[in-house]
Amino acid sequence: MKERNTKPSASARLFAATAAVLASCAASGAYAFTLEGAPKVAFIYASSAQDGGWNEALEAGRKAVEEQLKVPVAVTENIPEEATKLRAAIDLYVKRGFNIIIGTTYGYSAPMAEAAKAYPNVAFLSASGTENGPNMESFYARTYQGWYLAGIAAGQATKTKKIGILAGFPVGVVNWDINSFALGARSVDPAIETVAVFANSWWDPVKEGQIAQAILDQKADVLATNLSATSALDAAEKAGVPSVGFQLDMSHAAPKTIQTSVVFRWEKYLVPTIKEIIDGSWKPEEFGAFEGLETGVVELAPFGPTVSEETKAKIEAAKQDIIAGKLDPFQGLLKKQDGTVVVDAGGKVDDAALWSMDYFVDGVIGTMPAK
Amino acid sequence: MLDTAFLVRRQNPGFLLTSLSYAGGLLVGLTVSAMLLVHAGVPASALVDEFLIATFLTSDGLSQTATAALPLVLVGLASAVAMRVRFWNIGVEGQLWLGAIASTWVALNGIGPEALRLPTMFVLAALAGAAWIAISLFLKLRWGVNEVISTLLLGSVAFLLVQHLLFGVWRDPANSFPVTATFPEASWFSILGWGQLHTGIFLVAGIALSIWFVMEHSRAGFYADAVGFNAKAALATGLPVLRTAVGLVLLSGALSGVAGMMIVAGTEHRLNQSVGNGYLFSAIVIAYLARAKPLWVIVVSFALGAVFTAGNVLKVFYSISEAMIVLMQGTVLMSILMAQFFSTYSLKRPN
C-alpha cells in the first residue's frame, strides 16, 4: 500500500499549485484530468446517511453541492466495505453516466483506487481515504486543530482538573483528537489530566452511555465524545457537567451543558473541489487534501450558554495562531504517556507521523492496546 | 366442513409433486418479494429491467453473479455436508474468519515459495477452518455440548480474534486503520478478464465436483445418509459412524475456511472487518434450498448470487436497504420450505 503522507503546509500547497499551473502551461497539461460528459455526482455511504454524525456531516456537504453547483447528485446507502460490493455499485453508476464518485469511508479507499484505474475519466474523491492518483483524491480534515480549541474550553471549565473523552477505535485519526484535546486543556493548566476510553465501536449508544458514566465516576467534570451518537452528552447533561460534541453541532443533546462541538464543514472542500472537476482545472493532491481551520473544513460549533467571554477570547486567539502557523497542537516539546520524547522543543509532528500516531501524550490517562 | 384432519407422511412423494411444490413455493416467494419491493417504492417496470435484464442478460451482471457465487458455493457445501450427518454447523462464519486469518498470515508474511503461495494459503485455510470446528466437535463428543450453541459462539470468538489482529499487529502501518496492508500479487487469484471473476472459479469447481462425487457416488456418501437418518441403526449395522461423522464435520469446517481464503485472495486482497459478514445466513439458506445435494448447492448459490447482484442495483438506485434484501431471501426460503412440507405430507380426513 502507498504510504499515506499528507501535504506539508498551506504555503507549500500554494507553491505546488503554482508549480502545477506553470507546468501545465509548459507541457499543455500532460497530467490533466478531463471529465467525460455532463457532470453527475454520486455519494456512496457504508451505512445510513442520517447517522447523526460522520455520514450526516458529509450529507450536509452533498446537499450544498446539489444546491450550489446545480448538478444531479445521487445517494446510495449501506454498501458494505467489501471490494466486490463497492465495485459493483461504482460500475453501475459509471455505466449510467455518473462521473464524479464520492466514497465516504476509509474502507472504500483501495477498491476505489482500482476503479479509478479502470475509469480514467471518472473523478473519485475518498473521504478519510488513503489512496491518491491522477483522477483520485483522498480527503480528510485536521480535526486535531478543532480538538485543541475544544481542549481549551474543557480546560477552562474543569474544577477537578480531570476531563474525559470517549472515542471509537485506536486509529491515527482518533488518537490525534484525544491527544490534541488533552494538550489544549493542558495549555490552560499543565496539571489537567484527560481520561480517554475506547468504546471499540463506532456506533453503540447504550455502551457509550455506560462508559460515559464510568468516566464521570472517576471524578472527571468535563465530558467529550469523539463518536456519532450523543450518549456521552446525554450523560453529561444529566449530571450537569460541561460537554463537547463532535462531527455536527450536538447542542440539541445537551443544550445547558454543551461548551461547543468540533464539526466538519465538508462543503468547504467538496463544493470548490467538484467545481474544479467540472471546470477542468482539478489537480488531485499527490498526498490527498488535508485541510483544517484555515479553510473552515473544521470549525467549532457556536458556544454553549455557560462558556465565559474569557474562554471565548482564549480560543479565538489560539485559532488565529493555528491559522497563522504560529501554533501547532503537536509542537515540541511533546512527550508520550511514558515520558519518552516525541519531538524536541522547536520541532513538530509531521503529517506522516500524524497518520501513524499510535500513542497517548503525557497527561492522558488510558491504555493504548498493545501492538 | 373439515373438523379434524390428519397429517400423513407420504411414503414416496413423486418427482412431479416435489418439483411442482418447489416451483410453486419459489413463485409465491418471488411474488411476495416483488410486492414488498413495489411497496418500498420500486416501480414495477424497474423490477423487470433491474431484476431480470441487468442481472441475467448483461455480461456485467453475469460476471458479478459468478464472482459473488464462488464463496457462496463453498459455504453452502460446508453447511450441506454437515447437515447430511445431522450436525448443525451454525459457525460457518467463524470457520470462514479462521480461514481468512490463516491465508492472510501466509500472504502478509510471504510463507513458502511464491509459486506455492496460493496452494499454501489454501491448505492452511482449510486446516484452520477444520481446527475451529474441531473444538465444537470435541465438546460434543466429550461432554455432549450442543453444537448449535458452541459453533455459534465460537463464531463470535473468531470475529473478536480478527478484531484483535486488525487493531493490533495487522493494522495498516501507514495510518493505523483496522485493515491489513494489501497482499502482494503472488497471493491473488488472477483475473480472468471477465469482470472481477478470478481463477478461484477452477478451485471451486474442482472442490464442488469432488464433493458431489464423494457424496453421491461413493461409499462415504452412503454412510453419511445412513448416519444422518438413524445413527443408532447405522452403528448397529456396523457402519463406521464416528469416522463418517467426524470426517464430514471436519470437511465442513475446512470448506468454510477455504471460503475465507477465496474472499481475501479472490476479491478483497486484504483482510478487513466486513469480509465474512452475512455468509452464515446464506450458507443455511443455500443448504436448505438445495436439500444438502452438492450439485443443487451450485445452482442455488448462483441464484443467490443473482439476488445479490439484483439487490445491489436496487440498493444503488432505489435506496433499498440490505435488510430488505435479507427479508426477500427469507421470504423465498420460507415459501419453499412450506411448499416442501405439503409435498412431504398429505391431509387426510378421519375415516
From TrEMBL, chain A:
Keyword entries, A-Z: Signal
PROSITE patterns in the cross-refs: PROKAR_LIPOPROTEIN
GO cellular component assignments: plasma membrane
UniProt entry tagged with the keyword Glycoprotein: no
Signal peptide (from-to): 1-32
Ranges for domain ABC transporter substrate-binding protein PnrA-like: 39-323
UniProt cross-references to InterPro entries, sorted A to Z: ABC-Purine-Binding (IPR052910), Peripla_BP_I (IPR028082), PnrA-like (IPR003760)
Protein's UniProt keywords contain Mitochondrion: no
Protein name: BMP family ABC transporter substrate-binding protein
UniProtKB/TrEMBL annotation, chain B:
Any one cellular-component term (Gene Ontology): plasma membrane
TM segment ranges: 20-42, 62-83, 95-112, 118-139, 151-171, 191-214, 245-265, 271-290, 295-318, 324-347
UniProt keyword annotations, A-Z: Cell membrane, Membrane, Transmembrane, Transmembrane helix
Membrane topology category: Multi-pass membrane protein
Localization in the cell: Cell membrane
A Pfam family per the record: BPD_transp_2
Gene Ontology MF term list: transmembrane transporter activity
CDD domains: TM_PBP1_transp_TpRbsC_like
Entry keyword Cell membrane: yes
InterPro entries for this protein: ABC_transp_permease
Identification of the protein by name: ABC transporter permease
Organism: Mesorhizobium zhangyense
